[in-house]
Protein 1
Amino acid sequence: MWRRVYLFLVLVRLYFALSPSYLHPDENFQGPEVIAGQIFSYPVRLTWEFTSVNPIRSVFPLWPVYGLPMLLLRWLWIGNGNDGEIPPIAVFWTLRVLMFALSFVLEDWALHELVQSPRHRRVAVMLVASSYVTWTYQTHTFSNSIETLAVAWSLVLIQRIVENKQRSSLFATAILAFVVVFGIFNRITFPAFLLIPGLRLIPHFIKKPFSLISAILSALLAIFIAIYLDTTFYTDHSVTWSYLFSHPTITPLNNLKYNLSASNLATHGLHPWYQHILFNTPLLLGPVALLLCFPHPSLRLYSAISGVFVLSIFQHQEARFLLPTVPLILSSVQLPKNKTHLRIWAGLWVAFNIIFGVLMGVYHQGGIIPTQVFLSNQPDATQAIWWKTYSPPIWLLNGKNEVLKTHDIMGMKGPLMLREVSALATCHKPSSSATAYLEEKEGTYLIAPLSATFLDSHTSNDSGLHFQEVWRYRRHLNLDDLDFGEDGVWATIRRVVGRRGLGAWRVTKDCAR
C-alpha cells in the first residue's frame, strides 16, 4: 500500500515540477539565465551578483547542473536536423524535469542510505515525498535545492567512511572533498550543515592519514577548477597562468565579505536572529514542527541543528535558506503513537501540504513564465512594462529581447507607473479589427496583476491612455500586493484571491492631446 502512495506522491512531484509557478527570481537569475547566455544566443540580463567589481556568484556549480544538460539538449537538437536555436521554453521545462529527477533519485536515495531502520526509513521517505517543499522548491532551479542534495550526499559519504572499518576509503574521502568544495562554491552557507557531522571524520583521519591526503588533493583540484572557471568567466581577455595566480576571482570569499556587512544585508532586508527558528522553520515544516520536542537523535538532526544555528547568525534570513534542513528534520521525527493523535496529525499534515503546494507550486507568480512566452510571440512588442510582479526572466523571450525592452517597475507607485507607461506608449490608431495592432511595428505592453485595483479606472479608457487587454492568465497570485493595514484582512484576501490572474494590456495614447 505504501509503495502505491509513494508512487502517487512522485507523480504529484512531477506535476508541480511542470507547473509554471515562480517562487523567487533567483531561480532564474542565479542559474539558468547565466548559463543559457553562455551556451545559446539568447540575450540575457546578468544581475548585480555577476556584474559587481567583486562578483559573489560562482559559475563552477552551474556548469555541471545546468550547462551539461543544455549542451546535451543542443547536441540532440542539432543532431536531429533542426535549424536555429532551441526554443528557450523547451530548455526551461527540460531543467524543471532535471530538477525533478535529481530530487526523486538523489534525495530519496540518500534517505534510504542515511536511515538505517526499515520501518523508520519508510516513514522518513513518505514524509519527504509528501512535503510541499519537495514538490515545489526542490523541483525549481534554486542554488538552495542543489545545496540540499550536496548536504544529503555529504552525510551519506561521511557515514560510509566512518562505518567502513576495513579500508582507508581513499575514493570516498576524495569524492567527499570534491562535493564539499562544490557545495561551498554553490553557497557559502554549505559548511554550516557539516560542522557537527564532520567531527566524526577526525578519528578516521588520525587512524588513516592517507585518507586525509586524498581529501586534501581532491579539494585542491576542485578549488583550482572552480577558480579557473570563475576567473575565465569574469575576465574579458584570455586568462594566462600568471594572470590566474595574480588575479584570481574567488567568489566564495567575495560572497562571505559581502554578507558580513550589515549595510549590504540591509538592502535585502534585515531579520531578527530568531526569524529562522520561530517563523521560517514552521513555514517549511508545518505540523512536523509540533513533533520536534522528541526527535530521533541522528547525524541528520545534528546537521540540521548546526545549519539553523549558523544561518541564524546572519541578519538576512529567507525560508528557502533552510531547504537542506527539511529532509534532515523530516527523517528525524517520531510520529504520534496514539492512533487518534496520529490521525489528527496526519489530517493536518495533508491539509497543510495541499494548501501550500497549490499556493506555491501553481499560483505563486504563476503567470510570469506564460506571459513571457506570450510576449515572445507578439510581432509588434517593443516595450514591456512589468508592474507589481517579480522580475521576468528575459532569456525566455526567444530572441525577442533584441527588439523588446523590458522595464521592471514592480514597486513603483501607481501615478508614477502611469507616467512611465505614457512616456513609452505609441499613438492610438482607431481600428475596426481587434487584432489590427499586430501589424504595427511598435507596441507597448503593460503587464500587471488583475488584483491591482488602481488600474480599474484607467483600463476603462476614460483618459488619454487606451488600454486594450490582449492576454490573461488566471493561475497567478500576487502575494506581494497584500495591504492589510489600509484595506483590512478580509477585503485584501478577497481582492487578491478573488481577482487572481495576470493581465497584459497593449497601451496607446492620444498623440493629438
Note: Residues 483 and 492 are 6 Å apart (CA to CA).
Protein 2
Amino acid sequence: MSTSTLGATTAAIVPTIASTVKPSEAVQRNPFIRLDAKDNVVVARIEVPAGVAVPSEGVTTLQPVPAGHKLAARFIAKGEPVLKYNTVIGFASEDLPPGTWMHSHNIAFGDLVKDYRHGLDYVPTKLLVSDERARFQGIVRADGRVATRNYIGVFIVSHGAATVARKIASFFDEDELAAFPNIDGVVPFVHEQGAGMERSGEPMELLRRTIGGYIRHPNTAGALVIALGEEHNGLDDFLAHQKLATGPMLQTLVIQQAGGTKKAIAAGIEQVRNMLAAANGVRREPVSAEHISIGLQCGGSDGFSGLSANPALGRAMEILIEHGGTAMLSETSEIFGVEHTLTARAVTPEVGKKLVARIDWWLRYNEGRDTQINGRVSPGNNAGGLANVLEKSLGGAKKGGNAPLMEVYEYAEPVTQHGLVFMDTPGYDPVSATGQIAGRANLICFTTGRGSCFGSVPAPTIKLASNTPMYARMTNDMDINCGVVIDGEATIDQMGRAIFEQILRHASGEQTKSEALGVGLNEFVPWPLGISD
C-alpha cells in the first residue's frame, strides 16, 4: 500500500464519491452556480424548466436550461463580452434579457485581445523537503528510473509488421504469464505509418521519437522491434536515429529475413520468452512522489468539466508539484484563447514565447479549416454546455491548476523538467496521450463529462467524471466521481486531495477501471500530422 502525508485529510470525503444521482434538496433550492461575482452568466447544476425563479440572481428562467448550460444573470447587450470565471468566452450575438438560456445560438465566437505578460506573474512553487514528500510503491530500474507498471512491448517500425506483432503479443495470455506475476503484460504497439511516407522531415521525426520514447519508457521492461524489411522507416536507421542499442532486453526481428509470417511469429515468441525471467525480477519499494509524471487529458467535456473535474485535478497537480512531481498539460488547440493565463506565470519570458509559437503554428496549420481552434467544438462538447473553444479552453486549462509553467515541449520530446510543463499535441485524445507517454508520463489522468472509455499502456489511465449522473451510468469505466463538487458534497480542495491519494494508489499498482477492462491495447496512435482537431 502507498503511504502519504494526506491520508487523514481526505478520508472524510472518500465515502461521498459514490453519490446518488438524485439532486440534493440544497441543489434543488439553488440550481445555479455563480462562479465569479463579476460574471454575467451562471451555470445550471441540474436541468431547470422555464419559469423557475432564481432568488440568488433575482431572475426567472425564460427557457428550459439543460444541466451544465448557462443562464444570463442580467441584461447582456449585443456585442457585449460574455463572462464566465470573469473571463471572456464569447460575445452576445443579440440583446439578451435576464433569465435567457445562453449557448452557441446566442454566444458569438470572436477575437480577443490577450496580454501575454510573459513571466510577469511567475511565483515559484514551495517544494516540500524530501522527508515530507508523499511516497508510493514504485519499481526502481537499474539506471534509477522509476516505473509504475512493468510491460514487455512488441513494436513495429512500419504497419507492414502489424499482424506479426499482434500475434506474438497475443500468445502471451494469462496462462503463459502465470509464472511471471510481476509482468503486467506483453503488448503490441502497432500503428499505420512507417511506409509510403517521406523518408525524412517532421512526420518521420515524430514517428521515430514516439516509438523510441515508448521503448525507453520506465514502464517498458523489454522490447522487441519488428520490421518487414523494406519500409521507409528502416530498422537500422530507426535504431541509429534513436541511439538504441540491441541487447537481451531490446531485440529485433525482420520478417523477410526470418522466412515470412509464420516463421517470424515463432521466432518472435521465442525472443519474448527469453525476456520474461529478467522482466519478472522486479519488486516494488517506497519511492518519492517526485517520480510521478502525469499526462493530463480531457475528452467528452461538458459544462461541468471546468467546474469540478478539471479544477479538482488541477488542485491535485498543485499538490503533486509541491511533492516534486510533474504535470504535463497538452492538447494545444484546447488551450487556445486562454494561453495568456499560462504565459503570464511562465518561469521565463522565453518559456512563455515557446507556447505562443506553438499556438501560432496551429493557427497557420488550421487556417480556413472547420476545426476546433477556429471556434467550433465537437457535438458532444456542445450538447454538454460548451458554446465554443474559448469556453472549453477555459475549463481545460484548469487541469494544470495555478502552478507556474516551467517548460514547453514539442510532441513526444523527453520531459525532464519537474513541475507544470506543456507538450504540444492535438486535442485528439489517443494521439495526445501517446505523445505524453512517449515523453515519459507514467500515469494519465483523464477528465470527462459526457463519458469516455479511453485507456492506455504502458502508463495506465485514471478517469475522472465531472458529474454524478454520468458517473453512475458509467461506473465500470470511471475511477473517480468529481460530481460531488457540483452536488455540494465536497470542495475543490477536498476533491483534489482525494485525487492525489488515489493517484498514489494507482502508481503503486492498484488497477484502474480501464486496466481491469483491458482497454488501452489499441490506443497507441503516433501523431500523423493530419489530425487537426
Note: Residues 286-517 form one domain.
Protein 3
Amino acid sequence: MAGFGNINEMSKDELAGKSYEALLYLMNSKKKRKPEKKSESEDLPKHKEKKNKVIEKLDEPDTNEEENETNEENELIDALVREDLDNLDEKENETSQDPFNRHFDSENMQAISEAISCVKAMNLSQSSEETKLGISQIFTPDTEEKVSYNCIPKSDNVSDLGLKQRILEAYKSQKPSGHLTTMQMEIAKHMFNYQDVFFTNMNIKSHKLISSLYALHALNHVFKTRDRILKNSARLSQNPELEFRDQGYTRPKVLVLLPTRNSCYEFINTLISYSGADQVANRNRFEDDFSIEKEVISEKKPEDFRYLFAGNTDDMFRIGIKFTRKTVKLFSQFYNSDIIVASPLGLRLAIGNKGDKKRDLDFLSSIEVSIIDQADSLYMQNWEHIEAIFDEINSLPKEAHDCDFSRVRPWYLDQQAKYMRQTVLFSQYNALDINSFFSHYMLNVAGKIKFRTLNRGILNQLGYKIKQTYVRVSSDSIIKLPDARFSYFVNSVLPQLVKSPQGGILVYVPSYFDFVRIRNHMDDEAISYSAISEYSSTSDLTRARTLFQQGKTKIILYTERAHHFRRFDIRGVKAVVMYAPPTNPQYYVELARMPMRSITEGKLDQDAAKCRILFSKYDSISLEGIVGFQRVPNMCHGRHEVFEFV
C-alpha cells in the first residue's frame, strides 16, 4: 500500500470493507502533504474571467497566518490542560442531553445503522401535528428504538437553544430581550435538534428572522465542533492512550447556499455580529467585493422583487470563513474554513464537471450542516446546480489533507455521512423540483419535518373581476405530460388565438424548453408573434414590447424566468393564456392584472378580459398556491375538466 492513491483504485465496496486498515496506514504515513492546488477557478470559461478575479484569490495560503493560528490552538490546548477537564463540558452546558452530542457523538452505532437502513429503504413513519405555522409533517426512520431529539428549546428565550456562551452574549448585546417569535420557536424545535427542516412559506418579514436563526445554528455547530476537538486534544496530551472520534476528513462543517452577493453580504455580517470576535480579517476586501451602493429600484416593482434584487445581485461567488477564539477570517482557503458560503453557480464551477482532471471537491466531504436559503430564487437560477452539488457532498475524499484518521467518526469511515448530515431549506413557495429535493436529498436519520401551509389561494387578490378558465390536460404519466400539453396547446388553443379578432394575447410559458418548442412551431406555421425570454437582449425586449403594444403582433410569448428577473407590466395585454400554472402564486396575480391597464385606458371592456390556464394533476403543488388547497383534489382528480372562476 502506497498512500491514498492506491486506496482510490479500490471500489467503494472494497474500501468500505477495508477502510479501517487502509486509513490506519494513512494515519501513520510520514509523507508530506502535496502542494496546495491552484485557484479553484483557474479552469473557468474565459467569459467568466473578469467576474472571477476576486474568487481566484480564495485558495492562496498564508503560511505565516496559518502558523500563528496553529500556535494559538496549541496555547489553547495548554490552557485547557491546566484546567479541570472533567468540568469543562458542564461549564458550556454540553451535557449528554445536548442535541449536538446526541446526534454526532452517539455511541449506539447499532441504532444508527438500523436508522440508516430504514432511510435507504424509505421506511419512514409519518406523523402530523397542527401548529401556528400550519400542518407539520414529521418523517422519522421506522426503527424499534426511537431516539428523541426534542430537548430544546424549552421556552421562547434564546438562552434555551443550547448556544455557546460567547454566541449568547453577542446575541443578547444586540437583542437584550432574547425572546424568539412563534415562528422561530417552531423552526428551532427541529433545526437545533439536528433534524432536517423544509419550510416553504417564507416572506420578506420572516426571512430576516429565519436568517438570524440559522446564523446562530451554524455558528453554534462550528464552535461546538472546534471546542470539542481542542478539549479532546488536551485530554490526549495528558493520556495518549485515550481514543476520541470527534471529526471528519476535512475542516469545513457548514455549507450555506445563497442566491446573490448581497444576500451573502448580509448573512456574513450577521455571522460576524453573533461570533463575539474581536477582529475580522480581510474586512475591507469583503466590503469592496460584496457591497455596492444600492440602486433605487422603482416603487412600481413588487416588494419581493425590490428585496431580492437590492444591492449586489451577482450570482457567482464563493467564500470561506474561518473562526478562531478572537478572529473571523474571511476569504480563508476552503480546507482551512469552518463555513463555506456560496451561490450554486459559484460552487458548481469550483467543483468542476465529472471527468475534469483538476476536479476538487474534498472540501465538501465532511459537511455536517447544509443550509439552502431563498430556494425560490435559486430555483429561478438553475436548480440543477443544487442537485449536482448534493450529489457530491459527503463523498469519500481523494486525498488525506493532513487528516488524523484515528479521530474520524465511524460513520464517515463507513461512507454514511450523508445520513448524518442536517439539511435545512427555506423558500417563499414550494415547487415540484424543490419538493423532490426534500424526498431524495434530505436523508437525516434524526428525521425531517415539512411545514405545510394550508394555502387558501390568491384568487381574491386580483382587485377586479376577470373570467378565469382552468382546463385540465390529461396524461398517463409525468414523463408524457410535456407532449400532452404541447399537443393540446397547438391543436386546441393556438388555432383559436390566431383566428381571434382580438389581439393583445399574452402567452405565459413557465419552462424555457416549452417556450422554445412553441416558438419553433409558430415559426414553422408562419404565425406572427413577439417573444420575451430570460435570454432576450435589451434591444429585443424593447422591440417585442413595442410591436405588441402597437398591435403589430397579436401574440407575445413570455417566460417565467423573464418575469422573475424583469417583472414587466406589459402594456397592450387584453387576454392571458398560461401554458401551465406559475410556480410563484404571486406571479399569477401580476399576470392576471395585466389586462387592467387596457381596461383603464378604455381599450378593453372589463367583461371581455379573460385568463385561461392549462394544468394537469401533476401541477397540484403550484395550483394549490393559486386556487387554494380545498379546490385542488376536485380539480386534479374530479370528473370535470374545465373550471371557471370570476
Note: Confidence is low (pLDDT under 50) at residues 1-61, 89-93.
